[in-house]
Amino acid sequence: MADTADGHEGRGRHETEDERADRMWSELIQEVRVAQTGVQILFGFLLTVAFTPHYQRLGVVDHTIYIVTVVLGATATGALIGPVSFHRIVAGRRIKPQSVRWASRLTFAGLVLLLATMASAVLLVLRVATHGAYVPYVVAGVAVWYLACWYGLPLWARTGHAKGD
User: Fold this and answer.
1) Alpha-carbon distance 131 to 160, whole Å?
2) What's the pLDDT tens digit per position in 2-45?
3) CA 92 to chain CA mean position, Å
4) To which H or E segment does residue 150 belong?
5) Across the strands, what pairs with 3?
6) DSSP per residue over 7-45, as a string?
7) To 5 degrees, how large is the angle CA 136–CA 155–CA 81?
8) CA–CA gap between residue 4 and residue 16 (Å, rounded)
9) pLDDT 10s digits, 40-83
């Protein structure tokens, strides 16, 4: 990228690396808040399922799907809360640009795990509610929809429509 008159790279903004890191951190935390809320609500509901009378009547496959779903939800929760802990532990150490990169990676991992948790939860609920042979196809469709919304469209916009890249 070309330098602008004030010596900063032409990113469309005139900000220092620290200012950019501050802005990106604020944006990341807002994004994490949305994902955290969703995963925490889902995880909370998942934790209660084992204490319902219907849980004891589930077959081995459904118990396994439930356990996998809970573990996925726990790991998604950990990854999506990770940026907050990361920031708290490294705050004031003058490594905010690096912190933003690590927190972004944790968030991305958390979103992948959230996608897996959601697909697994939909699989479990639809298996229990319908016992239909079409359930795997519905779950695959939901997963494809998540992939398109969460990754496909943003990647398409990033690669095909980014200015000056």
Assistant:
1) 42
2) 444 444 455 567 888 888 888 998 899 888 888 888 888 999 99
3) 26
4) none
5) 9
6) S-B-SSS---HHHHHHHHHHHHHHHHHHHHHHHHHHHHH
7) 75
8) 12
9) 899 999 999 999 999 999 999 999 999 999 999 999 999 999 99
